[in-house]
Amino acid sequence: MNLKSFKLKILDRYILSQVIMATVACILLFIVIWIAPETLLKVIKRTLAGSYTVQVAIQILLLEVPKILNKALPVGLLLGALFTFDKLSKDSEITVMRSFGISFSRIVAPVIVFSLFITAACFVVYDKLIPLSVKRYNVIQHENPSSHFVYTFKDDNGSPLKIMIVSNFDNDTIEKLVVLNFSGEQYSDANILSNILIAENAVYKDKIWILPVAKRYELNKDGIFNLIKSVDNVEVVKGQKAQDVYTLMTYSVKRERELNNKELYSYLKLLKKEHLMDEYSYMLNKYLQRYFHSLICIMFAVLGCLLGFSQPREQRLIGFTVAIAIVFSYYITLPFFDLLAEKRVMPPYLTASIQPLAILAAMYIVKKIKDL
User: Fold this and answer.
1) CA distances from 171 to 17, 168, 174, 232, 249 (A)
2) Phi, psi of 218 (to 5 degrees)
3) 79, 193, 281, 325: which could join 26 in a potential S-S bond, CB 3.0 to 4.6 Å?
4) 35-89: per-residue pLDDT in tens?
């Protein structure tokens, strides 16, 4: 019994070492192929033109790696497992193992354990590395996206009380703010403005939006200006609502990949609270994908083992062709499911899980075909 256990441990180490080497090679190859056509060429051109120093060029290339790594990890694991088990099948090593009574599931066990580590790494890449790399990239490129932001305050009946329009927002700088205040009265089904505040800049501090210097345009019921005056230190909105509006504005200039899991979860709660359901559905889909895409590593590892296993006279090119087709289909359909979630054609929980379910179905079909 002890001798058998010892042999199995040797077997685990042997299979694991083969899979690790093949996976690392596939990951590196994937990164090089992905980064080479456009990013590398663009960086080289800008370096030769003097826009980048060599140091900055290297930093930019390194900062591109995390965004590629989240795709390279599952694909590298799939191809690494496939290549290893194809080689083991070609050399009849799997046949010898099974002749000693070792089941196929036991042979695959070390690959599954390795895939758990890759899954954790993929999750960390999503949660930590990509947001950090994007922020650092924006600093190097001096890219601080500004945005036009509009927020409408409504009463319990859905009628507008106030509309805030920010013409430009860049980090902590809020420029050219316009506030439309409604009187609460209606005329011909239209809400009547009571006054308009216009300021060159605004300040958000301690849950208060303040206009240091502004002009107030008072309107009568006919919509005609009857008073224009300068006002100082006008509090536009304060309290929790002020913080919610500021958070929405801050996140409106960020892409999903710039937010870590904690930030994205907080943003989701705020979107749901504000009933911004299109943005909520899209962001929830991307949030769930982080978990499902990480778990795809385990599925891809098992699928690679199944596709790599072949009978003595079986065409081995078939396994690699199927693997490439699955990878291509998986990534090419991601934007499609993002769109379905954003337009609320399908619920985010379905759009995020339908691809992993399809991979599970593919695993089951391959297992049946291979008769394992």
Assistant:
1) 48, 10, 8, 23, 10
2) -85, 135
3) 79
4) 777 777 888 888 888 878 888 888 888 888 888 898 899 999 999 999 999 888 8
Beta-strand relationship, 190-205 and 160-170: unpaired
- Could you report the per-residue pLDDT of 254-306, keeping only the tens digit for each? 888 889 999 999 999 999 998 889 899 999 999 999 999 889 999 999 999 99
Tell me which amino acid residue 101 is: G
| CA pair distance 297, 23, nearest whole angstrom | 12
Q: How far from chain centre, in Å, is Cα 111?
A: 26
Give exposure, 290-306, as e/b (b: 16+ Cβ within 10 Å): bbbbbbbbbbbbbbbbb
Is residue 268 within 8 A of residue 251, CB to CB? The reply is no
Calpha distance 307→299 (Å, rounded): 12
pTM for this predicted structure? 0.82
Q: Which distant-in-sequence residues (6+ apart) come within 8 Å of 326 by Cβ?
A: 78, 303, 359, 362
For 70, 116, 247, 334, the CA distances from 125, given in Å and listed in that order, are: 6, 14, 24, 18
